[in-house]
Rhodanese domain-containing protein/cystathionine beta-lyase (Pseudomonas savastanoi), 255 residues
Amino acid sequence: MSQIITPAQLQQWLFDGQEIALFDVREHGQYGDAHLFHGVTLPYSRLELDIRRLAPNPNVRLVIYDQTGSDVAPRAALRLVASGYCNVHLLEGGVQGWQASGRQLFAGVHVPSKAFGELVEQVSHTPHVTAIELAQWQASGEPLVVLDGRPFDEYRKMTIPGSVCCPNGELGYRIPELVSDESTPIVVNCAGRTRSIIGAQTLIDMGVKNPVYALENGTQGWYLADLQLEHGSVRHYPVSAALPRRWQNGLRYTP
């Protein structure tokens, strides 16, 4: 059976150091318009499909919310309890109740990670290049390595011409295979800016001697600068038998 939790109680839970799962059960469009900072989108239409992946612990403190607290959240709570979750709570008043209590809402998606990226750039002063600067650099023919820090699926959809797919989580392992000369500049890109910043700053913090830059605004900035994106690319870091392999022959697989 589910219980009601007030905005004040939820605020306390979010910072008490205990495990908690906070889900927004409205549809994606509503979530993007305004949501709680720590809320994760879990649309009611995909509840059973995604809940086990997002909350594998059936005993977790699980808080769900909708627009008013009486829309789809009560129905979602019943389905969660029926699915084996034993600690389900509904946010009193939903999004409207949270805002009415004087607490802030946020627009967009991936807000915590984006905020973290901006903080990293502000604190570390991560070097960056614009799309126009990168295009001119490529046209000059000077040595340069462009690494796309996104997963291969995203990379194949669109990327910077000539870039190589190397997800940020692999950068530390693969740099010696991808860049043999310590004087060659490295530019890390993503779709926007967050993963570009994190990837570039990771290499810098690891002590990579190469000049390292984040591509300002990623593939979006490249497109808005009226530059041509590349689609269907299959370039990726060299497969090494000594390291875990994620892709081979342009296809994702699990070893």
Notes: The chain has a mean pLDDT of 90. The first strand starts at residue 3 and ends at 5.
